[in-house]
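Protein Record: Sequence and Backbone Structure Tokens
======================================================
Tokens: labelled as protein backbone structure tokens, with as many entries as the chain has residues.
Question of interest: how does this chain fold, as expressed in backbone structure tokens?

___
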Amino acid sequence: MDQDIAVIASAAIKKRFDAEGFQVLEGVDANNAKFEVSGVIKELVLNVKNRDEINISIETTLKDAVTGKVVWSGLVTEKNDRFAGVSGNSKADVDAYLNKGLHVVSGKTVEAIGASLAAARPELFNLTPGTKAIKGVDVYVAPPAASHIPAAMPAIPVATAVQAGTAPANATTGLLSVNTNPPRAKVYLDGVYFGLSPLSSEIEPGVHGVVVKLKGYKTVTEKVSVRKGDKTELELSLER
């Protein structure tokens, strides 16, 4: 690589903040900022020896710029692998694969921070308390926010909901669910083995190739369109 990895990661997250409508201030202008974002790359491994394997873990902290109080903090990870290109990995191809992983991590980070701020500081988003910011939607009337939370049920941090594998797909990925009859068939997405059915996985939006194999049954090949922020279900009956 001809760039420092911290610079690449910082650029990816800044780009994501910009894309989601956050005003990012730098230099002298940063003195007028409401919040300060900092982070640490806990792990970044890119292995292209046999398969292309990527493992990214970035810890991010959001502080109130005036009080210094931590508003949000969390660790976002991304693990992925794929078959290398038939002609080998060029520098541009490896660079694109790394940036794809950073795109997923930065998207989850900004989504979690945005959801947390929208809940805690709805006035910054011109929101009625308790509603979610959706581009192109202005909320006029909504149910009031809960006035209290029972002591026996502490509030669940936003980061937990975003990182949990059973959570709904976030704004940068889509959730694909593959069910087969009979179950426990091998599921391949775009040529990469993902696991046995029933299977649910967050993947990039777009058209993906799904191949399902089970000994004693015919191989099934399908094309499926996964939408951003939505769940797509694929039900397959295997034939002998």
Observations:
- Residues 91-120 form the longest helix (30 residues).
- The chain has three helices and ten strands.
- The beta strands are 35-47, 52-64, 70-82, 174-181, 186-189, 192-196, 199-203, 206-213, 220-226, 231-237.
- The radius of gyration is 21 Å.
